[in-house]
Specification:
Strand content: 35-45%
Strand order of the largest sheet: 1-2-8-7-6-5-4-3
Radius of gyration: 15 Å
Distance between the termini: 15 Å
Shape: globular
Number of strands: 8
Structural class: alpha+beta
Number of helices: 4
Helix content: 25-40%
Length: 156
């Protein structure tokens, strides 16, 4: 990972949102592809300690997605529906797991001279939900996922 590519997390006080921002040393179209093709998602999504399975991945408005990760004893499913797909600049979807209320999640892909700044915004039903998500270790999982994505991008 190049210097300056660390993920930043911004959770504004009193607002039910969290912004994850990360720069990648790869063109926007390639970063887009790694977030929208199942064969790539399976190689970078989630922390390394989990086996990842992509069960459904239909990237179009109204299309469903479903991914699970397992540590061998416990499996957790994540799922949702795509709302907006604007190649290669914007992607939005719902993000659900367990009994947690649905999260509205959007990704913005910004071209920065052949590199990409990716901004993921997660909108929660309320601040308490955002804070609950933060306590699950989601930011750490996101950080590790983006490190894995960086590694994958270097091979494509």
């Amino acid at each position: 990972m190049a210097a300056g590519n660390e993920m930043t997390v911004d959770a504004p006080a009193g607002e039910p949102v969290m912004h994850l921002t990360r720069r990648f040393d790869a063109p926007r179209e390639l970063v887009w592809e790694t977030l929208t093709k199942a064969e790539h998602i399976a190689r970078w999504w989630g922390p390394r300690k989990y086996a990842i399975a992509v069960h459904e991945f239909d990237v179009r408005p109204g299309g469903k997605w479903r991914i699970s990760h397992s540590d061998g004893t416990k499996t957790v499913e994540f799922f949702g529906e795509y709302r907006e797909v604007v190649k290669p600049s914007r992607l939005s979807r719902t993000f659900c797991f367990g009994d947690f209320p649905p999260i509205e999640e959007s990704y913005e892909f910004h071209d920065e001279n052949g590199k990409t700044r990716l901004v993921c915004t997660q909108r929660f039903p309320n601040v308490m939900g955002r804070d609950m998500m933060a306590r699950t270790g989601a930011a750490e999982g996101g950080r590790e996922s983006f490190e894995r994505l960086d590694e994958l991008l270097a091979t494509l």
